[in-house]
Write a structure and sequence with these properties.
The structure holds two protein chains of two kinds. Chain A is an alpha/beta fold. Chain A is about 35% helix and about 30% strand. In chain A, the strands form three sheets. Chain A has a six-stranded mixed beta sheet with strand order 6-7-8-3-9-10, with helices on both faces. A four-stranded antiparallel beta sheet of chain A has the order 2-1-4-5, covered by helices on one side. A four-stranded antiparallel beta sheet of chain A has the order 12-13-11-14, covered by helices on one side. Classes of the chains: A alpha/beta, B mainly alpha.
């Protein structure tokens, strides 16, 4: 195994009684990158993360972090990693500083080192002013900052974050991204789950798209988008009957700039090479075939398209986050 | 070893902080049992209770042992609640991702619940004293009452934590808790001696470990060493079995839940 590999996951599986949460999952994370696990709720991202942080044991396969097996050498792993759980895992009766002091004891830090480290972390996440207030009064953004400080306290080699910006306002979100980029600059390896496309796109060096417990695609957002081939034109048809779609597809395939066509729920997803020529031609063909066109949308490849291409559905169409 | 002490102290400190920040909760935790049971119940039934039946100078002196053990019961059964919330909001997972011995979380909870219970027992005995009830066996007897109370509390807290780790939702937890606690009290010698109970209740109360614990503590308060010693010996035997079962069940539930 190369030195550059921080995490190696091979054939990982997790089955609860009758439900398979993760199936034959393999991936590797390179040292010093931000790696994103992207997928809808219940896709298996959090299960994968929990196995990596040793709070859940896999039913099959292996995962190693810097050569140490997460199932067999849990204690060694726990000393190397930091964990930022999904929202709410804050004790509202403790102050921010008390959270950090508690964790310092759990990581067995000597008192002096704990105090200096806590002071510098509070400064990093800009919580010094509020450090001695109980967390009950913290805003969502402040809680998240505290979470990150907690995750960083052990000075981890790998930082794991579960949905780090879920439910945050734009400004807090950008701040968190900023910290994570800063940490990457310092050489930290970061693994995070997210169901935000823009977050995966803008923050992560590489992502794994996970759906129904399986990896559908792995790569940098740029490569994944490029692999789709061409810009996208989405047609929304007034009457998307199968035979209408069929006729239209056949007619469109004959056009020189069209590279691929895929039916969607409301119409067609067309990949084209030269949009300035393709668009008028597509419109003309649609008219000739006699399809009622309700909408046409052109865009450069987006991560959502990658998601649609690999899972058959859009992350945006999925039901919103349950609030429980 | 040093590391584990550091972990347990830090975690226990957290429980203490939490309690101290919930001032109302703390006040009611400490005051409720003696106010409700000892003062109200004790005085209310003073005339209704037959001295011949309870075999005590007055009802409150009879009731004191029962209130002590009821407090142990309530604290013990509620002992897992905070872990339940920790499990539900993800704080437990945060703890479990740190390099601590898995047992430290449990130990800190035992330590905390036992300390609170001990303080409450002392307050109850203090209030009873103000109403003229003093322990016949003196300081040593009070120390023994604390020990017996703690031994019963350990088992109960283990049950509570086992439940906290096993239930699907906290609704389930509180239903079971509500279902358990009052029958445990009524089907014991807390309010009425076994001899005065209808046959079927007597039978049920006989198999309630709480009865044996109360029957050991009562003579320590009411009569003196000669009557207390055999009762205490029996109670210790019952508690050894009870605690062994509870701790075994608790350990299993814990391992299943957090590995």
């Amino acid at each position: 195994m190369s030195d550059a590999v921080a995490i190696e996951v091979k054939g990982l599986g997790k089955t609860y009684d009758t439900v398979t949460a993760v199936k034959n999952l393999s991936l590797s994370v390179v040292r010093g990158e931000i790696f994103g696990l992207l997928g809808p709720n219940g896709a298996g991202k959090s299960t994968t993360l929990r196995i990596l942080i040793t709070t859940l044991s896999p039913t099959s396969g292996t995962a190693t972090i810097f050569g140490h097996d997460v199932a067999k050498e849990a204690d060694t792993i726990r000393r190397m990693i930091g964990y930022v759980p999904q929202e709410r895992a804050i004790d509202r009766f403790l102050t921010g500083r008390e959270h950090l002091l508690l964790l310092a004891d759990l990581y067995h830090l000597p008192k002096n080192e704990a105090l200096t480290r806590i002071a510098s972390l509070l400064k990093l996440v800009d919580l010094e002013e509020h450090a001695d207030r109980v967390a009950k009064g913290y805003s969502g953004g402040m809680k998240r900052k505290l979470d990150i400080a907690c995750g960083l306290l052990p000075n981890p080699k790998v930082l794991f974050l579960d949905e780090p910006t879920l439910g945050l306002d734009v400004q807090s979100r950008l701040n968190i991204w900023q910290y994570l980029r800063q940490l990457r600059e310092q050489g930290m390896t970061i693994v995070m789950t997210t169901n935000y496309l823009d977050e995966a796109d803008q923050l992560c060096d590489r992502i794994a798209i996970i759906d129904r417990g399986e990896i559908r695609a792995i790569g940098s957002p740029k490569d994944l988008k490029a692999s789709l081939g061409g810009d996208g034109v989405w047609l929304t048809l007034g009457d998307p009957q199968p035979q209408v779609l069929e006729t239209l597809s056949t007619a469109l395939k004959a056009l020189p700039f069209v590279r691929a066509i895929r039916p969607t729920l409301q119409g067609l997803d067309i990949r084209v090479d030269a949009p300035e020529k393709a668009l008028p031609a597509i419109l003309e063909t649609t008219n000739q075939v006699g399809c009622r066109l309700d909408g046409i949308e052109y865009h450069r490849p987006r991560l959502d398209d990658v998601f649609v291409a690999h899972t058959g559905r859009s992350l945006k169409d999925l039901p919103p986050e349950p609030t429980t | 070893m040093n590391e584990q002490i550091q972990e347990v102290l830090a975690l226990t400190n957290r429980w203490v902080k939490r309690l101290s920040r919930e001032k109302f909760s703390m006040l009611f935790t400490l005051i409720q049992p003696m106010l409700f049971w000892l003062i109200f119940f004790g005085n209310l039934f003073q005339r209704a209770a037959d001295i011949q039946v309870v075999q005590a100078p007055n009802y409150m002196s009879f009731l004191a042992a029962g209130v002590v053990v009821m407090t142990v019961l309530n604290n013990g059964l509620a002992g897992g609640v905070d872990l339940l919330f920790d499990k539900e909001n993800g704080f437990l997972e945060r703890l479990m991702a740190t390099p601590i011995r898995r047992s430290s979380v449990i130990l800190s909870r035992f330590l905390f619940v036992m300390a609170i219970t001990a303080m409450q027992i002392l307050v109850i005995l203090g209030v009873a004293f103000l109403f003229g009830v003093s322990a016949e066996t003196g300081i040593l007897g009070i120390a023994l009452i604390l020990v017996i109370g703690m031994l019963f509390g350990v088992g109960l807290t283990a049950i509570s934590m086992a439940m906290a780790f096993s239930v699907k939702s906290h609704g389930d937890f509180f239903s079971v808790l509500g279902f358990l606690s009052l029958p445990m009290i009524f089907l014991s010698s807390a309010l009425v001696p076994l001899a005065a109970m209808p046959g079927w209740m007597k039978t049920l109360a006989f198999f309630n470990p709480m009865t044996w614990v109360i029957d050991a503590i009562r003579p320590l308060i009411l009569t003196g060493w000669s009557e207390a010693i055999p009762q205490v010996a029996i109670a210790l035997g019952v508690l050894a079995v009870f605690d062994a079962l509870c701790l075994y069940g608790g350990a299993r539930a814990f391992r299943r839940s957090v590995g």
